[in-house]
Amino acid sequence: MNHHHWTWRYSEHLPSDARLGRQFVETVLDQLSQNGWSKENIYAVHLSLEEAMTNCIKHGNKHDECKSVRIECRLSPTRFWIELEDEGCGFDPENVPDCTAEENLDKPSGRGLLLMKHFMTRIEYNGSGNRVMMEKVLDE
Predict the structure, then answer these.
(1) What span, in angstroms and rounded, lies between the C-alpha atoms of 55 and 49?
(2) Domain range spanning residue 85?
(3) Taking Cα atoms as reference points, which of 42, 49, 47 lies closest to residue 10?
(4) Which single residue of 11, 34, 70, 105 could bond 85 by disulfide (Cβ 3.0 to 4.6 Å)?
(5) DSSP 98
């Protein structure tokens, strides 16, 4: 990752405020647009990033504005990379119920993670599950 030429970098500790989370997402979408990303790819990042940010604020930090979400973000015309870390106790992504299984079709949990996996090139969690790294790489 260090050898890539990034055109935009962002680093911040964002308070657990949904409005600030949305503002950050909008900033990223503007940058992707300025870097020539297609509407389809911007949409993919939009859904994934919004879901990850919501998970950090709502599930990780429980809307506690005294807690923050650490953000490291980089992007270029062909690559988007972000790491989000909340101050929660984390979760095990392997133990999230399969939202496509018939008995879970009417339950909302797990759908966001499925969307993120579908839209991003790569997703990794740290051992305790309170940090997520997402990357979308476009065909160059």
Answers:
(1) 10
(2) 8-137
(3) 49
(4) 70
(5) -
